[in-house]
């Protein structure tokens, strides 16, 4: 067998120093395979590398033919319990919101569909690439860790050693190969010399060839790199774009090949051009042999990855080799031969920042598929990672590559494994290392040691952004709370907490500012940096509190440490401050003087807030009652914190939902903790002092001060604002009890209350509610658990979103002063709730809600409501409010006072209701509020003041609230009196009272109803005449409408032919929207025009692959039945004088010229292309259609039959042929001369002629994409084609929407069709008459062969409706010279009959055998026989190419269904051309006989058939009827689309994943959008893949779905586009554009139909125009690059 081995392999098996031999082999062959010239050839290189380099290694590895050896290994493979599927960029990932240990635990699509989690609440996202599926990892899931595929077998419980199948020789060979290849790869990828190679790899013969290698960075833009390369290496822009794309994708690219000097020159130019504003691009001049070995090193790592790990969808394809490789790496990790950090893994990690992007990606992938797939080796790797953590992060901070390309990004794979994270904390002190590394990078401090962000340079700001990733690592470590604590874990966690407190101490008090009352606080960049740091640490602080909550010993120790840290922070706070004594209402307290408005204060108080959080935990876990000796220490710290906390209550950022939990809420808790340990009077006096209001309330005659004092208005306004804030603060301190540990509530009560108060503002969508609620570290709000208790869900319609509405029974829990309301929210909620109460007939008072009781630790807070100082303040404000003209109090202040009184009354009421013999009622606010002031002032009591205010006329808005308060006071007095009597009596009385009230309410309701019915009767009697008159008018209007509508009893209506109905001539008078003048539509009058929009269309195309025609040579006379493209005309229906429109358009042009000079950006319309917006509705338009009167035709009694007419028309055509021969021959390429004679009198006025030319030229220009040419003979053809195509598209639209043919079109479409048809019949008057006659001759020759007309098309190659419209509308030019007395109506009928027969022939020639159930009766026997006769005649003419068909019923069905769209289109055409009203039967369901009668056809159209009709042989086949085109079918589940897009590769980037895969909804093509790689040239301009596709697929209009953004994209032309809501909705009826929320998305068929309707209506361009007008930012987007 050895003789079969390659020579090199035989040699390797015999040598002692294999390492030296392999290196010698590589040194000899690698430079001969790779990097031999400027243009690399990957296919050739890969083939040679496989033969000369990889094959010998594989032979050595297996000891035999690799195909045999590796196959044997694969047979021994056992399925793995771990999925380990590595995600591609953009691939869908699923995380279960109920079972995942944290949000980083994800499943691939296959595992998810086979798991229990698909029935749970889950989140769907797209992967950034690189992570792997966690199916099978028991630590990643709380339940359901396995899918069906990876479920472990019981028989697999005792897993055998994977290496048992391998011989010792093979194991040794594997070790040898892996160690040599890995060492070679590491040596080369970390090699930093540009002109030398490592020992043993020097090439035998060295050439003087170098590469100028450009490396990627994240500093310079694409444009900068492209511009620099064009200058440096003298390449074209396309080449530069290709270079830049490769550099961005792979991390480096050679941009020049040659000798050293040649490459060095290019390097100097690149460095010089990119170093002006930032650091230069990294460029190296490298010897070709070095580059060659680095290329093969990458290839070697790829090969290693293939044989040891991951191959396609199969994980551990060769499990034994994987095990050997992991052992090799593990040995290196455990002990390096040269001491610390000497293993190959360490070398790769520590050199990571020096490598280019491509190299990093390859070795990261290798680690992922080997070390990180096995917990044992993952642990070894994690230990080394933790040991090197500080250095790795320092390298990352200095590097400029994104984190996804750094080895530090692998931290998520280790730190999120709970067992690993705990091990690293206890053994490697990881928590301390991360925090210390973070603090070390923030070196700017002030004199007090606090962080200072004031003078941050751009470089430092960049560094600060990168350092923030360490906070992410700390979050991963803490994300899973421990269930069991060891002493070592406690010790290391508290050590980490010490380090964290050092970080928080550096933040405590940073960025201090002086608060400007009443002024806006600007947010400077440095302020932003400090705030960013605070927000990033929010979740960390919450998680540390959660860790502490799981262990009492840790909680107490953490509390002590935090208290010590806070004491240290404020140790010098009172130094030098003047002590003062405050006295008020008989109470006094000692404090320090502190002037808030002049001293600097800081919003950053993280140490205080952490202490507040821990204090609540002490209360919640009842530790406070067991260890009371810890608590008194808080009071001193709190007194200081009060100074800071009350200052920031109105700042937006402080209230922001993302940070309020750890800022605003914790400040409030700190105040509550302090207040609960102080005398309430002392607390309020300190608060008054800090708000600088003490001097107002402490004076003996404060209630009269405003009457005497004539203070400065600004000072009074400022004091009023401060009083309002202070009263709000007191409400919050006493009223906010919904945090577990402060009030006796459950955890979910807090979130319920948040949702309730958001819904009190207005009904909200799910996403709005989620944004308004704080998220935890797992991005969960807890909303889904409680939402159904407080809200009802209302499903969305075709537009809009699903909304949650507040349950009516929850409205009573509304608190007007909810602490998370902004002022705007509060006013909206107040208005909404008052409106609701008025609707329900209730009074509009908004009393405070009933609150839960406090926990024992905070129970004393209620005493604030009944303390003397507060009562004094309340009395003072009420006294001021009695004086209407004082102006020194505000309504808002009074409202807050009334709310506080209400809170106190409800507190007393609750205590009375819950009282029993064991607990006495200690709260007696009603007694205190009845007490008047003491001598000498003898001020009125609070109750007396309320009674006075009840009747004050200037307080009308507060009367409901005052009444409620007085009523509550009376109720409490009654309760107190009742409590004196026995409880039994009280209960009986209560029942009797309730019964009496119910009876009274019933009697009152009956009385009101009787009054209402009596009033109604009186009103009708008094206004009897009025009622009678309106009934008569109604009857009259009904009778007139019936009179005008044709009835079935009249003569049958016909729209074509000599017997067509002739409606009464009515003057048509319209109003110009610009000048408002009325004008009659007359042929010789002023021209009136409709704003219109012409566009090329492929909406009905059955062949999108037809190559584009040459506009100069294309003959559009005959439309092919596949309708590959057409010209559609639409209108908004608004009418103008032609001269008014011209003036308007000239003004638009002038304005556009001025705007372009100033702004140089696009608008939503292109004036250069004749576009404008309708002056009334701003609908996009590009021309105008003239309104024309209906042509008058004389009805002649007797008209010749078809045969006679054919003879007459033949003679006319011969005469025209001879007349035309005398003129210059017609050509579509040469401008025709103006004819020398005119044989008809043009009936139209000059302005109408001008407008005929205007619309005709516009249709020609847009339809053919050519420059305007008024003399081109194709102008009338394009106009007729546009008329026919528009009719066809409207007919299909009516069918698709199941609407009747007549009566269902909107007015604008009706007017547009009438104008188009009448324009078509008149447009020949503005063209050369012989030319139009020539068109008629050629059109007729398609039906009746004419030997003088060459190249007539086959009957199967002509769309018959287009032919009908064109031949009927062109006949006018012939009829104008006709002296035979033929009427136009008769000719129209003959032409229609001829074309109808031709269409039936088309249908029969192209019909296919379809099995249908026969339902024929006697009534259709004649039709069936006629069909058979016609078909047999065709078989006789055509020959054996038509199969024999026995069933006449089947043929008749084919004809009837196939011809129906044509007949409906013809009915629309003749209806609008001749103005004949449609019979009422056609306004409803489809009726075949009535339709045929309206078209003057027999109900069996086969009777029209004449044997004399000539036929040509069929050339093509097109089935009839043509089915309506639809947008492509989309999958119901959006993740199927994401999965499809993730496997889509960029067609021009060598298999690279597309960054923005975009699906064409018209044809289903997937495109690589918004990338340089797929740009193509279109009409001399580079455009993106989507724009190029729109011109190939949609004639310039496109509808796309951007898969990764879940966003629909509309494009029209190169400069217009807009984004549109996608048809995919989540369970809450909302779209998720950008896939930010991650809720499962499913197809909403109604919304998709709406998009389809826009497309079928040709309204995409109009939609874009409206969107761009509404949102000007859309105009500035370069849509052509998408």
From TrEMBL:
Keyword list (alphabetical) reads: Acetylation, Chromosome, Coiled coil, Isopeptide bond, Metal-binding, Nucleus, Phosphoprotein, Transferase, Ubl conjugation, Ubl conjugation pathway, Zinc, Zinc-finger
Q: Which reaction does it catalyse?
A: S-ubiquitinyl-[E2 ubiquitin-conjugating enzyme]-L-cysteine + [acceptor protein]-L-lysine = [E2 ubiquitin-conjugating enzyme]-L-cysteine + N(6)-ubiquitinyl-[acceptor protein]-L-lysine
What EC designation does it have? 2.3.2.27
UBR-type zinc-finger residues: 81-152
Any single GO BP term: protein ubiquitination
Please state where this protein is localized: Chromosome; Nucleus
Cross-referenced InterPro entries: ClpS_core, E3_ELL-like, E3_ligase_UBR-like_C, Ribosomal_bL12_C/ClpS-like, UBR-box_UBR2, UBR1-like, UBR1-like_WH, WH_DNA-bd_sf
Listed PROSITE patterns: ZF_UBR
Pathway note = Protein modification; protein ubiquitination
Region annotated Disordered, chain positions: 1034-1060
Domain UBR-type stretches: 81-152
The entry's function note states: Ubiquitin ligase protein which is a component of the N-end rule pathway. Recognizes and binds to proteins bearing specific N-terminal residues that are destabilizing according to the N-end rule, leading to their ubiquitination and subsequent degradation.
Q: Which family does it belong to?
A: Belongs to the E3 ubiquitin-protein ligase UBR1-like family.
Name this protein carries in UniProt: E3 ubiquitin-protein ligase
Native organism: Salmo trutta (Brown trout)
């Amino acid at each position: 067998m050895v003789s079969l081995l390659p020579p090199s392999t035989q040699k390797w098996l015999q040598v002692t120093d294999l390492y030296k031999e392999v290196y010698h082999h590589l040194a000899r062959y690698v430079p001969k395979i790779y990097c031999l010239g400027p243009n690399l050839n990957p296919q050739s290189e890969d083939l040679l590398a496989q033969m000369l380099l990889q094959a010998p290694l594989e032979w050595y590895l297996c000891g035999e033919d690799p195909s045999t050896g590796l196959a044997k290994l694969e047979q021994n493979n056992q399925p793995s319990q771990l999925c380990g599927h590595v995600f591609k960029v953009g691939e869908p990932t699923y995380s279960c919101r109920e079972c995942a240990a944290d949000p980083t635990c994800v499943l691939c699509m296959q595992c998810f569909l086979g798991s229990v989690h698909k029935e749970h609440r889950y989140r769907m996202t797209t992967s950034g690439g690189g992570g792997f599926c966690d199916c099978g990892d028991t630590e990643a899931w709380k339940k359901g860790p396995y899918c069906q595929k990876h479920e472990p077998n019981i028989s697999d419980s005792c897993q055998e050693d994977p290496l048992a199948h391998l011989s010792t020789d093979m194991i040794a060979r594997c070790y040898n190969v892996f160690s040599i290849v890995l060492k070679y790869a590491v040596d080369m990828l970390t090699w930093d010399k540009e002109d030398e190679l490592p020992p043993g790899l020097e090439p035998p013969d060295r050439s003087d060839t170098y590469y100028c290698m450009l490396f990627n960075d994240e500093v310079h833009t694409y444009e900068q790199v492209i511009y620099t390369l064009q200058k440096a290496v003298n390449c074209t822009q396309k080449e530069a774009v290709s270079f830049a794309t490769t550099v961005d994708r792979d991390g480096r690219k050679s941009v020049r090949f040659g000798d050293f000097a040649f490459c060095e020159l290019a390097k100097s130019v690149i460095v010089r051009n990119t170093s002006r504003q930032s650091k230069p691009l990294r460029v190296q001049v490298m010897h070709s042999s070095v580059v060659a070995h680095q290329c093969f090193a990458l290839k070697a790592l790829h090969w290693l990855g293939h044989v040891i790990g991951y191959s396609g969808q199969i994980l551990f394809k060769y499990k034994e080799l994987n095990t050997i490789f992991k052992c090799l790496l593990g040995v290196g990790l455990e002990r390096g031969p040269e001491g610390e950090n000497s293993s190959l893994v360490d070398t790769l990690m520590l050199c990571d920042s020096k490598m280019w992007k491509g190299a990093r990606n390859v070795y990261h992938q290798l680690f992922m598929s080997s070390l990180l797939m096995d917990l044992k080796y993952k642990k070894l790797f994690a230990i080394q990672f933790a040991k090197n953590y500080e250095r790795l992060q320092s390298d990352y901070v200095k590097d400029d590559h994104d984190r996804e390309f750094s080895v530090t990004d692998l931290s998520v794979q280790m730190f999120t494994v709970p067992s690993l994270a705990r091990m690293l904390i206890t053994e490697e002190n990881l928590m301390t290392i991360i925090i210390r590394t973070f603090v070390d990078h923030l070196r700017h401090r002030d004199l007090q040691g606090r962080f200072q962000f004031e003078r941050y340079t751009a470089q430092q700001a960049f560094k600060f952004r990168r350092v923030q990733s360490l906070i992410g690592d700390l979050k991963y470590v803490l994300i899973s709370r421990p269930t069991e604590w060891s002493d070592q874990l406690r010790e290391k966690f508290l050590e980490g907490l010490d380090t964290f407190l050092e970080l928080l101490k550096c933040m405590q008090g940073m960025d201090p500012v002086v608060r400007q009352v009443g002024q806006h606080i600007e947010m400077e960049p440095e302020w932003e940096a400090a705030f960013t740091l605070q927000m990033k640490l929010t979740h960390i602080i919450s998680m540390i509190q959660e860790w502490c909550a799981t262990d009492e010993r840790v909680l107490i120790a953490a509390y002590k440490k935090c208290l010590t840290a806070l004491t240290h922070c404020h140790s010098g706070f009172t130094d030098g401050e003047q002590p003062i004594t405050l006295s008020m209402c008989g109470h006094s307290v000692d404090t320090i003087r502190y002037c808030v408005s002049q001293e600097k204060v800081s919003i950053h108080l993280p140490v205080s807030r952490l202490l507040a959080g821990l204090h609540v935990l002490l209360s919640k876990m009842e530790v406070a009652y067991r260890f009371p000796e810890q608590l008194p220490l808080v009071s001193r710290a709190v007194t200081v914190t009060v100074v800071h906390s009350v200052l920031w209550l109105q700042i937006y950022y402080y209230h922001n939902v993302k940070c309020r939990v750890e800022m605003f809420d914790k400040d409030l808790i700190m105040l509550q903790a302090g207040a609960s340990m102080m005398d309430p009077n002392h607390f309020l006096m300190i608060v008054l002092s800090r708000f600088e209001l003490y001097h107002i309330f402490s004076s003996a005659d404060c209630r009269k001060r405003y009457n005497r004092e004539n203070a400065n208005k600004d000072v009074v306004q400022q004091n009023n604002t401060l009083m309002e804030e202070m009263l709000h603060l007191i409400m919050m301190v006493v009223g906010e009890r919904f945090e577990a540990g402060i009030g006796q509530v459950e955890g979910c009560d807090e979130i319920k209350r948040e949702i309730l108060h958001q819904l009190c503002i207005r009904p909200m969508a799910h996403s709005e509610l989620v944004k308004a609620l704080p998220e935890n570290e797992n991005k969960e709000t807890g909303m889904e658990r409680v939402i159904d208790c407080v809200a009802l869900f209302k499903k969305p319609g075709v537009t809009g979103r699903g909304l949650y509405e507040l349950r009516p029974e929850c409205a009573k829990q509304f608190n007007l002063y909810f602490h998370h309301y902004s002022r705007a929210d509060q006013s909206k909620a107040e208005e909404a709730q008052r409106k609701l109460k008025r609707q329900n007939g209730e009074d509009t008072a908004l009393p405070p809600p009933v609150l839960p009781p406090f926990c024992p630790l905070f129970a004393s807070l209620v005493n604030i409501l009944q303390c003397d100082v507060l009562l004094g303040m309340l009395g003072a404000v009420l006294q001021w409010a009695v004086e209407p003209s004082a102006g020194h109090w505000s309504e808002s202040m009074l409202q807050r006072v009334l709310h506080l009184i209400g809170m106190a009354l409800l507190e007393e009421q609750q205590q009375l209701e819950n009282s029993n013999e064991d607990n006495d009622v200690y709260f007696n606010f009603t007694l205190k509020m009845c007490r008047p002031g003491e001598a000498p002032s003898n001020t009125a009591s609070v109750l007396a003041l309320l009674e006075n205010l009840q009747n004050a006329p200037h307080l009308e808005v507060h009367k409901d609230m005052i009444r409620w308060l007085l009523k509550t006071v009376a109720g409490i007095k009654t309760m107190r009196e009742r409590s004196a009597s026995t409880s039994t009596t009280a209960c009986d009385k209560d029942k009797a009272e309730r019964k009496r009230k119910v009876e009274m309410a019933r009697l009152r309701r009956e009385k009101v109803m009787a009054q209402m019915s009596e009033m109604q009767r009186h009103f009708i009697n008094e206004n009897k005449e009025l009622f009678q008159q309106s009934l008569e008018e109604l009857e009259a209007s009904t009778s007139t409408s019936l009179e005008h509508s044709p009835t079935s009893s009249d003569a049958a209506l016909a729209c074509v032919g000599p017997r067509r109905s002739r409606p009464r001539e009515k003057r048509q008078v319209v109003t110009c929207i610009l000048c408002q003048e009325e004008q009659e539509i007359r042929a010789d009058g002023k021209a009136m025009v409709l704003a219109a929009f012409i566009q090329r269309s492929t909406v009905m195309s059955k062949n999108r692959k037809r190559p584009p025609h040459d506009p100069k040579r294309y003959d559009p006379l005959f439309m092919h039945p596949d309708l590959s493209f057409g010209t559609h005309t639409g209108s908004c229906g608004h009418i103008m004088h032609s001269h008014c429109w011209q003036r308007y358009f000239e003004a638009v042009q002038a304005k556009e010229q001025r705007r372009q000079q100033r702004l140089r950006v696009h608008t939503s319309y292109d004036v250069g292309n004749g576009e404008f917006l309708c002056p009334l509705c701003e609908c996009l338009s590009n021309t105008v259609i003239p309104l024309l009167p209906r042509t008058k035709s004389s009805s002649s009694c007797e008209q010749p039959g078809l045969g006679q007419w054919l003879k007459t028309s033949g003679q006319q055509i011969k005469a025209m042929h001879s007349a035309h021969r005398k003129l210059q021959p017609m050509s579509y390429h040469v401008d025709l001369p103006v004819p020398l004679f005119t044989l008809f009198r043009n009936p139209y006025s000059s302005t109408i002629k001008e407008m005929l030319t205007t619309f005709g030229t516009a249709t020609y220009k847009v339809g053919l994409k050519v420059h305007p040419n008024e003399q081109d003979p194709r102008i009338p053809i394009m106009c007729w084609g546009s008329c026919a195509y528009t009719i066809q598209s409207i007919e299909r639209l009516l069918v698709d929407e199941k609407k009747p043919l007549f009566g269902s079109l909107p007015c604008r479409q009706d007017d547009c069709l009438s104008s188009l048809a009448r324009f078509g019949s008149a447009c020949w008057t503005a063209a050369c008459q012989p030319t139009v006659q020539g068109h008629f001759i050629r059109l007729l020759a398609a039906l009746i062969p004419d030997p003088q007309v060459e190249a007539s098309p086959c009957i199967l190659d002509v769309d018959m409706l287009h032919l009908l419209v064109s031949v009927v509308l062109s006949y006018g030019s012939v009829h104008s010279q006709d002296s035979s007395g033929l009427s136009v109506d008769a000719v129209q009928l003959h032409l229609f009959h001829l074309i109808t027969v031709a269409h039936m022939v088309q249908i029969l020639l192209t019909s296919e055998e379809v099995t249908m159930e026969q339902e024929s009766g006697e009534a259709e026997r004649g039709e069936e026989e006629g069909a058979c006769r016609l078909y047999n005649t065709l078989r006789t003419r055509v020959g054996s190419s038509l199969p024999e068909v026995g069933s006449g019923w089947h043929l008749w069905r084919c004809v009837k269904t196939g011809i129906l769209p044509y007949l409906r289109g013809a009915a629309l055409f003749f209806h609008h051309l001749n103005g004949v009203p449609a019979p009422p039967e056609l306004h409803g369901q489809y009726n075949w006989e009535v339709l045929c009668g309206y078209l003057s056809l027999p109900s069996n159209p086969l009777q029209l058939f004449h044997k004399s009709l000539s036929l040509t042989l069929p050339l093509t086949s097109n089935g009839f009827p043509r089915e309506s085109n639809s947008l492509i079918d989309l999958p119901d589940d959006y993740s199927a689309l994401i999965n499809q897009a993730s496997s889509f590769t960029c067609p021009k980037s060598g298999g690279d994943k597309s960054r923005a895969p975009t699906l064409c909804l018209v044809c289903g093509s997937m495109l690589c959008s918004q990338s340089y790689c797929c740009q193509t040239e279109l009409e001399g301009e580079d455009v993106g893949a989507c724009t190029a596709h729109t011109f190939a697929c949609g004639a310039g209009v496109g509808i796309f779905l951007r898969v990764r953004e879940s966003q629909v994209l509309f494009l029209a032309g190169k400069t217009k586009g807009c984004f549109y809501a996608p048809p995919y909705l989540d369970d809450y009826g909302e779209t998720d554009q950008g896939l930010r929320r991650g809720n499962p998305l499913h197809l909403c068929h109604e919304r998709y139909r709406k998009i389809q309707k826009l497309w079928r209506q040709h309204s995409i361009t109009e939609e874009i125009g409206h969107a761009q007008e509404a949102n000007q930012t859309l105009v500035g987007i370069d849509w052509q690059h998408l």
